[in-house]
Design goal:
The protein is mostly helical. It is built from nine helices and no strands. Helix 4 (about 70-80) packs across helix 9 (about 170-180) and helix 5 (about 90-100) packs antiparallel against helix 6 (about 105-110).
Length: about 180
């Protein structure tokens, strides 16, 4: 393939965009590599918790898998805090947008709102509304709300146990590669 030669998009041709499209498709596996690199970087972030953030993500995914969650939910559970590699304060939005082209809408919403759903367990300690999840009730469908609630209460908030038998990243890697191989444009 030849690199495109345009220097302005408004001067491009369909043939040049065909080259770009082919290159993007051919290089799609780098997305999974980037996500794996970001996940691995979470092993250096503890922020006062009993486990590092990679272990927390692995435990959340392990809990989801062991209760029969489907692949998209399990991989989203694995990646739900990957945004902390960039910004703890904005991590749900970062993770959700990274996942958005690869998962269905209910899974995207589960990750996008997860911090407010987690707030039930700790927001009061920071003088925030522990019922912040309620503000999402009107914008989410009942099924989306129920999934976000299940994620927060049954998997995410329980995943800080250094003694829990957690599945390793290598266990999830094939499914992660599969999910991130197929963007839904």
């Amino acid at each position: 393939m030849t690199a495109s030669t345009f220097t302005r998009m408004d001067a491009s041709t369909p043939e040049q965009w065909a080259v770009i499209g082919d290159e993007i498709y051919r290089n799609q596996p780098r997305v999974a590599e980037s996500v794996l690199t970001m996940l691995r970087s979470l092993s250096a972030i503890t922020d006062g918790f009993a486990t590092d953030q990679l272990t927390h993500c692995l435990q959340t995914a392990t809990l989801a898998e062991r209760t029969g969650a489907d692949d998209e939910i399990v991989i989203a559970a694995l990646c739900h805090d990957v945004g902390k590699a960039v910004s703890v304060a904005n991590h749900p939005a970062i993770a959700a947008e990274m996942l958005r082209p690869y998962v269905r809408t209910d899974v995207y919403e589960m990750i996008r709102v997860h911090q407010d759903f987690q707030g039930r367990h700790y927001y009061a300690y920071f003088e925030m509304d522990p019922n912040a999840r309620e503000k999402h009730r009107a914008e989410l469908t009942p099924d989306q709300y129920a999934l976000a609630e299940r994620f927060a209460d049954e998997w995410d908030q329980m995943a800080f146990d250094p003694e829990y038998e957690t599945l390793p990243l290598e266990h999830f890697e094939p499914r992660l590669r599969e999910v991130f191989a197929r963007p839904r444009f």
